[in-house]
């Protein structure tokens, strides 16, 4: 399984070039270019959340294309279905060969290391008509080629049910938990059972919870970490903590504006698709 720490190439939806995102995106672009990381764009997309609909890279030339059919794009509210991207169209335009899976899964609900994946149990609910929990877990072990598939409770206040807003890997044995789940002990149980050590982000301010949840949704690649920035006091607190937790990245870690993008419910990991290129 290819982890985020190994990825060398980053893509964004072409829709990120929309004027409403430019204050944020131009800052991201400048830092990536300064770090000699080229920016690539995904054609034929219908929203900016590239992580969710793009395939997941297992090995050099093995990309798994999951069924992208999230319940939050199936409502009766006008425009929901128009936001759905069809990953096969995007991959065809890129000339990327994929292996298709019938498992319904958003990429934002996969936090991965080389031998472990962590997902919320919303996955079980979304696949209930075709898979029992047991057969679903067996399938995930085989698809991802990992020993450990860890299910954590779905935060029902977060309708997307994504694990990448809850935690991230620091290394193979340690995860970083979002501070807003500090008291949610039921999340700890499956992580402890998997033998994972838990570190936590901590902040001195509480009034900015509608934004400071998003620090955990940073972009992590082989040679860089980009952290969301909101022009609030917690920006520096997040940077300093992450520099301590990821010391190898201390000089390759940058704050970038997310003020316009976070209003739509996501941040840096959500808007990027990263792979290990040849």
TrEMBL record:
Task: State the superkingdom.
Answer: Bacteria
- Record's keyword annotation contains Protein biosynthesis: no
Per its UniProt record, what InterPro entries does this chain match? Answer: Peptidyl-Arg-deiminase_porph (IPR007466)
Any one biological process term the GO annotation gives = putrescine biosynthetic process
- Which SUPFAM superfamilies does the record cross-reference, listed alphabetically? Pentein (SSF55909)
Name the PANTHER family for this protein: AGMATINE DEIMINASE-RELATED
Name of the molecule in the record: Agmatine deiminase family protein
Q: What species was this sequence derived from?
A: Flammeovirga yaeyamensis
């Amino acid at each position: 399984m290819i982890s985020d720490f190994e990825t060398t190439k980053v893509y964004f939806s072409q829709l990120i070039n929309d004027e409403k995102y430019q204050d944020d995106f131009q800052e991201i672009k400048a830092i990536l270019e300064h770090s000699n990381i080229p920016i690539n764009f995904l054609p034929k997309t219908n929203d900016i959340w590239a992580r969710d609909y793009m395939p997941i890279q297992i090995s050099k030339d093995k990309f798994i294309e999951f069924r992208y059919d999230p319940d939050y794009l199936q409502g009766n509210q006008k425009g929901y279905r128009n936001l759905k991207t069809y990953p096969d169209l995007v991959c065809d335009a890129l000339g990327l060969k994929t292996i298709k899976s019938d498992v319904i899964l958003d990429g934002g609900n996969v936090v991965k290391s080389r031998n472990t994946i962590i997902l919320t149990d919303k996955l079980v609910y979304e696949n209930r008509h075709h898979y029992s929990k047991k057969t679903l877990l067996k399938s995930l072990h085989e698809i991802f080629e990992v020993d450990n598939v860890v299910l954590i409770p779905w935060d029902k206040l977060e309708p997307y049910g994504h694990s990448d807003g809850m935690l991230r890997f620091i290394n193979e044995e340690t995860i970083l938990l979002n501070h807003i789940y500090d008291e949610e002990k039921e999340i700890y149980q499956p992580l402890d059972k998997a033998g994972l050590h838990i570190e936590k982000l901590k902040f001195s301010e509480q009034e900015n919870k509608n934004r400071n949840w998003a620090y955990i949704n940073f972009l992590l690649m082989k040679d860089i970490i980009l952290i969301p920035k909101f022009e609030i006091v917690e920006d520096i607190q997040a940077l300093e903590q992450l520099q301590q937790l990821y010391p190898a990245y201390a000089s390759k870690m940058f704050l970038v504006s997310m003020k316009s993008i976070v209003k739509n419910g996501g941040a840096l990991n959500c808007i990027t698709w990263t792979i290990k290129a040849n």
